[in-house]
Amino acid sequence: MVLLDKSSYELLRYVMRLTNPETVMSISRALGQSRRKIYYHLEKINDSLPSDVEPIVSIPREGILLSDSQKVACQLLLDSVDSYSYVMSMEERIQLMTIYIAITSERVTIEKLMDLTDVSRNTVLNDLGEIRAKLTLEPFQVYLYATKSEGYFFKCHPLNKIQYIHSLLYDVFSHPNEGFLTILNKKVPRFEGCERLFSADIVAFLAEQVTQLEIDLGKKINHYEIEFMLKVLPYLLLSYRNMVLEATEQAEILQEFALIRKRIEYHAAQNLAASLFEQFEVALDEIEISLIAMLLLSYRKDKDIHTNSQDFAEMKEGLERFVDEFLRCSAFEIDNRETLIRNLVMHSKALLFRKTYGILSKNPLTSQIRQKYKDLFATVKVVASYTLEAEWLIQMNDDDISYFTVHIGGALKHRPINGKTFRNIYLVCDEGVGVQKLLYKQCQAYLPTDSIKAVFTTEQFHSVEDILEVDLLISTSDTLRASFPILQVSPVLTYEDVMKLNYFLTYHTMKDNAEQLQPQLQRLLSRYISKEEDVREAADKIQELFQSDFFLATVEKGGLKDLY
After folding, report:
1. Total structural domains in the chain?
2. Which part of the chain is the PTS EIIB type-2 domain (predicted)?
3. What are all long-range contacts of 73-76, with beta carbons under 8 Å and residues at least 24 apart?
4. Torsion sign (Cα): 369, 372, 373, 378
5. CB 355 within 8 A of CB 298
6. pLDDT digits (tens, 9 = 90+) for 402-453
């Protein structure tokens, strides 16, 4: 069997998502690979496909678009990936080795690393050198050591190690590669000391705890972040258990967690630990319970009934001053000030705990927000630097600023547009309250006034799907399935997203108008055409023209004059 690597699978997944032909040049730009590499990986994919499936080829001046049979075969190829048919990249080998060294209770040797990654001794040594080099660039002060008695291990402050592994796992799971995840999921449970926490029953139990945690907290944690937390929790617990700590070191860590034990998240973590012990007799110590509470405090919330608590009165006052200063030094205007302040308090509570305990929260939309909302981003960044950063004694990076920009952007005053047909349009977005509001404001700029009826999460939408009258669903997810028309867009609308919205509205408006025009066309044509059958045929041809892509594209470019 031909071995497919990460780049091969990236190309395979990319071409499977195509709905229109795309050239090799365009694909190479999108994937950041040369055309030669694209053709090379395309050849490997074709060699892996069944003999009765036609090879994937790029048609001159058109590009690549998979047939139905090719899509079925490619999906089977993706589903069948395992550790024997996938070759890890160097980056993936380094990630796997790092996780192994961080969580296993066995002595790590060169031979075990060779067996783990299926590469030569020299390659393992080169990878270990690369790990050391990467660690010098990280802010966590984690160091890789090796001794004859202990093998390879990380030396650092225990919380620094947790922060580093959390950051590493965020990279692994936020940009998932199915081939690598398959290897990871197969190999990790076999590491010494990891079998119990990675058992299928405990993994399933943790996945089911989202609802109970939210009930205990009186908060709704961001959907993606709570799923991520429960997915990586076994890794973080084992990373802590991997270290041998003196009693004084344990006491120091507990002292650092003193602030956490006063919060409701600590009690929710205690309940989770009690359930884990009751069902599986897996006991968590005080540090591990505090670690779970720290994560619960650090993750973004979509809903929080405690935002008006006196505990956060000073924070609210600081945010009030930030908003006042933002409005004073900019030309922006906002709606629903109280809602904005409440959402900023909810976000900032988690932000301060993240800053206190070094838990990173990367925003995948930062580059898009910085580019599309340049002025808004710059204003938020400047104002935050001499208000919030100075008052809270923190340093906000671009990811932090982009989250604030999302909340501010979602509260900006809307200047409505008119002149389009009224429609029932619903937005579906799982990226959190802030992004939902920003998406709503963006769509308002391009859609008919009052046409957006609601913004749902996927779960909320499916709960009311049967009772809705829907003309269009706009979703930021590519997994949403419904019987209504769906447009998939980025949370920060791109030029292509806007064109898709305009095309949909133009097409369906003209389609409706064409249907209303049919009787009038027939009456008009009957003056010049005697046969009723010929009249209907001519009217149908004209209606087809109204609904054609060529006609719509011509209208978008500037009008009917281009037809002549």
Report:
1. 5
2. 423-513
3. 73/49, 74/12, 74/15, 74/16, 74/45, 74/49, 75/16
4. positive
5. no
6. 999 989 988 887 655 444 455 789 999 988 888 898 899 998 888 887 889 9
